[in-house]
Amino acid sequence: MKVAIVGAGKLGTKVATTLLDGNHAVTLIDTDKETLQKVSSHLDIMTVNANAKETKVLKNIGIPSFDFLIATTGSDETNIIIAAFAKKLGCERVLARVRDPEHMQQLQFIKDLMNIDYIVNPDMGITVEIYKYLAEKYTLSNGIFSSGKISLLEFNVNKYKQLIDMPITGFSDVLPNMLVVAISRNGKVIIPHGNDVIRENDFLYVVGEKEPIQELNKKVHVRGKYTDLQKVMIMGGGKTGFYLAKMLSEFGAAVKVIETDRERCYYLSTHLDDVMVLHGDATDLSLLEEENMDGMDAVVTATGFDEDNLLLALTAKMHGVEDVIAKVSRTSYAEIISLMGIDMALNPLDITTSTIIRLVQGNKKVLSSQLIQGQAEIMEIIATPDMKFLNTPLKDLNLPNSIIIAAIHRGHEVIIPNGETSIRKDDRVIMLSLLSDISSTEKFLNSTGKTGFFK
After folding, report:
1. Is the per-residue pLDDT at 323 higher than 50?
2. Is residue 117 pLDDT above 50, yes or no?
3. Count of helix runs (H) and strand runs (E) in the chain
């Protein structure tokens, strides 16, 4: 598949890297020559130093021959224009990154008018994941993923105490024909392996046949426990803070937003109904005490600085707030996060990259996918003859640590795999992978041919 990416920033570069691992042909366009040189020094990629708003640039690269164009510059308007130009010139599908709330209010109109196939919004993407964690769990929407006869269930291991301190290898002795595919521990989602031990307070993601999972659900979830989300504090009134405050307010929660910029506070107060907007510095502990942070059901740190978000999240956790979520863009902070004890840390770059990759691939072989806490993705794929991992025992596949095969549909049979299990042609495979290592997922799914798995 031929893909053009406009904008060599963090998102454009990560999408390019991931697509290359999937064996796609990628052309990266940017006006900054130095940035392109840095990218080309470590990626085998075609780069074009030009302004893609000029139609001659798109014509020169042969845009009608491209399967996809992705516009990820720092300007919404530029992305919309470039995507529209590319579509008009004959590119098969186009995608634009759009972030401003004003545009989001008229999204369908923009797509129809400019003939744009897809629009992605990183801030809205991370907001949806935070909302799902805070609001949907309170309404007991715990059937996170269900496909055919297979379901996935999430629960706190404290609800099934005999699993505490148990090695993963012993799990099937207690719950046969089920598999732990992920563990959420101190805000970090990990994929367990044989040497891992289930710890107190872990949240387990368990896959099995639908009926046994439903029976387990009755034991580990008490109806009515999670119906009291009332007070939420959001630190940072940027786009993520804005979208989240709006959604939680409409859900019925009392929301406070703390923002340092006075003009931004005015914008928030005039565009949000039933939300308290406070002008102040969220790192000021006296302000947090005055605004009763201790009494909050949840705190979300979404300032523009990762370090502030982590510090504020740690502060909230030390004050006894039950649910604390941090927006963190740097993957290098992953290990620090796991030691802090916060409930969830989300990376908007990982979430948006995953969304874009799935849109580029289409649904020819990916039947469905679902994010888990914004850090992992569970998907169902069809095993086709060109897959390089067919007819090989899973133990011999050298699977990356970031991937686990969760279940297999084979005709009317459901298989919870072990090391001896092999994937066969036409199997429907449920697999889980970490978004932080999405490149490994694309390498694993790459076909034996030269055109790429999803061509």
Report:
1. yes
2. yes
3. 16, 22
